[in-house]
């Protein structure tokens, strides 16, 4: 796999580059946002530091997501909850705070790759003949990976769509947090994090339908039947 490493600290970049190379990855390291935008299309996954000299890392993340859908992990010293939430909402597949254990980061890279790479035999909505799922005035096209609200398309991040599609494919079931995290993130350990909650909040905010994802308190989530006025019927 070809990795794009966006890191302006030379010592950190050397350590990460060496660890990735030992695992068989080829690495292009850049230290500026402009260079990241120039080379991101050739990357198969991205490690992104947020403390860059020429552009705020969160703004770079948003720009990268407009041109690239490769798996992306934020690796940064920013540990405030607000930063983590903003990073996940902007499209990061995972968020790792410095300092970190190298073995854990490598495991997270493997986990992100497993859940974003096509898997032989994995259920594919296009292959299984799933039809678009409608609930209220929301339509979720599982095969086309699109969401429309009152006929207008709404752009979700890849992970937001994955969560919504998982619920939409099984609309009559209530799914535990652990099951959703294991299926979508490939790691039920993330139940201790806010990743799932952040993406559910993003779905509700972007669609303008707070009832689209129903919270089952103390357990998990289910596809809801949203009211066009923003609530749930």
TrEMBL record:
Instruction: Report domain OmpR/PhoB-type positions.
Output: 130-225
Q: Does the keyword Transcription regulation apply?
A: yes
Q: Which Gene3D superfamilies match?
A: 3.40.50.2300, 6.10.250.690, Winged helix-like DNA-binding domain superfamily/Winged helix DNA-binding domain
Instruction: Return the InterPro entries for the record.
Output: CheY-like_superfamily, OmpR/PhoB-type_DNA-bd, Sig_transdc_resp-reg_receiver, WalR-like, WH-like_DNA-bd_sf
Give the DNA-binding residue ranges: 130-225
Per its UniProt record, what Pfam families does this chain match? Response_reg, Trans_reg_C
Q: What is this protein called?
A: DNA-binding response regulator
* Organism of provenance: Streptomyces nojiriensis
């Amino acid at each position: 796999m070809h990795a794009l490493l966006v890191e302006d600290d030379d010592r950190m970049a050397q350590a990460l580059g060496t660890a990735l190379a030992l695992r068989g990855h080829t690495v292009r390291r850049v230290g500026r946002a402009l260079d990241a935008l120039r080379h991101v299309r050739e990357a198969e996954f991205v490690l992104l530091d947020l403390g860059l000299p020429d552009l705020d890392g969160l703004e770079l993340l948003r720009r990268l997501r407009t041109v690239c859908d490769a798996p992306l992990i934020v690796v940064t010293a920013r540990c405030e909850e607000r930063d983590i939430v903003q990073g996940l909402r902007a499209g990061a597949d995972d968020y790792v705070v410095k300092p970190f254990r190298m073995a854990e980061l490598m495991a997270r890279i493997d986990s992100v790759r497993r859940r974003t790479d096509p898997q032989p035999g994995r259920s594919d909505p296009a292959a299984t003949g799933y039809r678009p799922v409608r609930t209220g005035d929301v339509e979720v096209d599982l095969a086309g990976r699109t969401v429309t609200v009152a006929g207008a398309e709404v752009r979700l991040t890849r992970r937001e769509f994955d969560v919504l599609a998982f619920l939409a494919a099984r609309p009559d079931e209530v799914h535990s947090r652990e099951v959703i995290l294991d299926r979508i993130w490939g790691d039920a350990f993330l139940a201790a994090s806010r990743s799932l909650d952040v993406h559910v909040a993003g779905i509700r905010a972007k669609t303008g339908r707070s009832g689209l994802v129903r919270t089952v308190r103390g357990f998990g989530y289910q596809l809801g039947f949203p009211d066009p006025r923003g609530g749930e019927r």
